[in-house]
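[[Sequence with tokens]]
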Amino acid sequence: MKRPCGSCPYRKDVPSGVWSAEEYEKLPAYDDPTNYQSFSAFFCHQQDGSLCSGWVGCHDMDESIGLRLAVAHNLLTKEQYEEALDYVCPVPLWESGQVARDHGMAELIEPGDKAKQVVAKLGRKLGLEYK
């Protein structure tokens, strides 16, 4: 994990409306106390198999049940787990999953030009066409 990708919903510089409502709705579940959190680790939307660096940087990984279970189910190595615990994000992130969700949802119905550019770039990277 070096830095969150250019379309990460946790980044403050990513425009609103890039992801679907379903994706934004996942973010606040990681703000909860450990025993109420989502049991899933949050992997990068770029589908490269790595943890979302924004998720790791935004949330307290010492309290993450999803991170612990990912190691227990051999989705992550012990080294990846340790790296997540020590990670410090080099770019500004929203202070919580709820704030990231609220920002992302704000222009979901009518995304701006910058959001459309991010979506088009992501689509090209994933081999999809955006119209």
Remarks:
- The helical segments are 21-26, 53-58, 65-72, 78-86, 97-106, 113-125.
- The two ends are 31 Å apart (CA to CA).
- The chain has six helices and no strands.
